[in-house]
Write a structure and sequence with these properties.
The chain is an alpha/beta fold. The protein is 31% helix and 23% strand. Helix 2 runs parallel beside helix 3 and helix 5 packs antiparallel against helix 6.
C-alpha cells in the first residue's frame, strides 16, 4: 500500500451479511487496501466523510436485458448501465435474446465490443443454449461469456426452447466450462397450448396471460431442470421465480445437493394481480407473470429461509407505446427494474421486513458467489474490487418513470414512495453516480468472466 492512496471513506457503517460495524475503507488502484478504524487509515487524495451512513458492496444484477444489438430503440448499453449506476448496481449480466442472439463466439465478442465503450458499470454477457449450437458452447465460454441462458419457456423465435435431449447434452457441456446456466423455467408446450385456448376464446386481457402461464407450467419445468442438473452435475440458476408451488421443488433439490440457486424480483415480492388497474392494466405484463395475491408472502418466506438465494430484476425496458396496447398478446412483456430495485428493497428494510445485512447477502454476496465472481465482487474485503455504495437510508422519493436513466419509462411502481437510495456508487474506487446523477463517462465499466 502506497503512503497516499486514492480514496478513503471515513466514519461509515460497514455492512456485510455477517455484521455491521463502524469504520473506514481505503482504496488504491481500484481495490480495497485497508479496512479499519477511521483514524488508522492512510492519507488519501480524496477523503469522503460518510457521517455514519451505511457503506455496502455494489449490488450485482445477474438478470437484465440491455437490448443491444438489434433493439437499441428499447435500450442501449449506455442507458442501461447509467440506470444501474444510479441504482447502486455495479455489475449487470445481459441476456442473449438480442438480434442476432448471443449464440456463438463471434456474437459474444461482438456484444462485448458494443458494450465496452458505453458501459458505466461492469458487465457480463450470457450465451444462448439452443439445439443448433451445442458445438458453440465451449467457444462462447472461451470468448468471454460469463454464464449461459436456457429458455425452457419461450415463444421468441430468436431464442426457441430446445428439446430435452439437447438440453441434457448442453448441460453436460456447460458443466465442463465451469459456468452456471440460468434457466427460464416454464413448460413451453403448456404455454403454447393454453395461449392458443385463450386466443380461440377471444381472450386478450391480462388475466388470460396469467391463465396461459399456469402454476403447473413452472412447477414441472423447475422439477425437470433440477433433475437434469442432478444428472449432469451442471450448476443451474432458476430465473425470476414467481410461483409459491415451485418453492418446495427448489428446496428439495437443494437438500439433495443439486447445484441450484434461485432468484426472485421486486415485482413478484411487492405486487399482485390486484395492482393491475393501478399499474395500467396490460402494462403489468411480464414473463412469467405477476400472480394472484398469496404468492408474494411465500416468496418472502423463501428469501428469508434461503430457498431463494438472491434478488435480480429481469430489467426489460420497452417504449411507452409497446406497454399500453389494448391486447395483452400485443403488449411487450417486461419493464425496467435495475434503477429502482435497491430503493424498493431498502424501503422494505425501513419497514422491518428484512435487515440491511440480509439485503447485502441477497443483492451483493449471493449473486457474486453463484456466478463465480466472489470475493472480487460483492464483498467488503481487503484485495477486492472497490465496488461500493454509500447509502442514504433517510432519503424519500416517489418513483417516476419519466425521470429514469433507462429508455424504458413505464414501471408498475409508478407513484410509489420509497425510503433509502444509493447516495454514491463507486466502481473500482471511481464514483460513477451521485444523488441520482451519472458522473462517470461511458467506458468506465469492464467485461467480466469468472476465473
Amino acid at each position: 500500500m502506497s503512503a497516499t492512496v486514492d480514496l478513503v471513506i471515513r466514519d461509515a457503517l460497514l455492512v456485510t451479511p455477517e455484521a455491521s460495524r463502524h469504520g473506514a475503507v481505503a482504496v488504491d488502484d481500484g481495490r480495497i487496501v485497508a479496512i479499519g478504524r477511521s483514524e488508522a487509515m492512510p492519507s488519501a487524495r480524496r477523503v469522503i466523510e460518510a457521517g455514519g451512513r451505511p457503506l455496502i458492496p455494489g449490488a450485482l444484477d445477474v438478470h437484465t436485458h440491455v437490448r443491444e444489438p438489434g433493439f437499441s430503440h428499447k435500450e442501449t448499453w449506455a442507458t442501461a448501465t447509467a440506470a444501474a449506476a444510479v441504482g447502486g448496481v455495479t455489475t449487470i449480466f445481459d441476456m442473449p435474446n438480442t438480434d442476432p442472439p448471443t449464440a456463438n463466439a463471434a456474437a459474444v465478442r461482438e456484444k462485448i465490443a458494443i458494450a465496452g465503450p458505453q458501459a458505466h458499470v461492469d458487465f457480463g454477457v450470457y450465451g444462448y443454449v439452443g439445439e443448433a449450437n451445442l458445438a458453440d458452447l465451449q467457444p462462447m465460454a472461451e470468448a468471454g461469456a460469463s454464464a449461459f441462458k436456457l429458455f425452457l419457456g419461450s415463444d421468441n423465435p430468436l431464442v426457441p426452447c430446445p428439446n430435452d435431449g439437447a438440453v441434457l447434452d448442453a448441460l453436460a457441456l456447460i458443466r465442463e466450462t465451469g459456468l452456471r446456466c440460468t434457466v427460464h423455467a416454464e413448460n413451453t408446450p403448456i404455454l403454447n397450448w393454453r395461449g392458443a385456448q385463450m386466443k380461440a376464446a377471444g381472450r386478450d386481457d391480462l388475466a388470460a396471460h396469467l391463465a396461459q402461464h399456469a402454476d403447473i407450467a413452472t412447477v414441472e419445468a423447475v422439477q425437470r431442470i433440477a433433475l437434469f442438473a442432478e444428472w449432469t452435475g451442471c450448476k443451474i440458476h432458476i430465473a425470476h421465480e414467481n410461483c409459491r408451488h415451485a418453492l418446495p421443488v427448489i428446496a428439495a433439490a437443494k437438500r439433495r445437493g443439486v447445484a441450484i440457486t434461485a432468484e426472485t424480483c421486486p415485482h413478484y415480492l411487492l405486487l399482485s394481480m390486484d395492482d393491475a388497474e393501478r399499474a395500467g392494466g396490460n402494462a403489468l405484463r411480464v414473463k412469467p407473470p405477476v400472480r394472484e395475491a398469496g404468492h408474494a408472502e411465500a416468496l418472502w418466506a423463501a428469501l428469508l429461509d434461503g430457498t431463494i438465494d438472491m434478488i435480480s430484476t429481469d430489467h426489460a425496458p420497452h417504449p411507452v407505446e409497446e406497454k399500453h396496447r389494448a391486447s395483452i398478446w400485443e403488449t411487450s412483456p417486461g419493464f425496467p427494474g435495475v434503477e429502482t430495485s435497491m430503493r424498493l428493497m431498502l424501503t422494505e428494510v425501513a419497514a422491518g421486513r428484512l435487515t440491511l445485512q440480509h439485503y447485502v447477502r441477497l443483492a451483493c454476496e449471493a449473486p457474486a458467489r453463484a456466478f463465480g465472481l466472489w470475493p472480487r465482487k460483492g464483498a467488503l474485503l481487503v484485495g477486492t474490487d472497490a465496488d461500493l455504495v454509500l447509502l442514504d437510508l433517510d432519503h424519500r422519493e416517489t418513483i417516476r418513470g419519466a425521470t429514469f436513466q433507462s429508455k424504458g419509462k413505464v414501471t408498475p411502481f409508478e407513484g410509489r414512495e420509497t425510503q433509502g437510495r444509493a447516495a454514491m456508487t463507486f466502481l473500482r474506487g471511481t464514483c460513477v453516480a451521485q444523488d441520482g446523477q451519472v458522473i462517470a463517462p461511458p467506458g468506465t465499466g469492464r467485461s467480466l468472466q469468472p476465473p
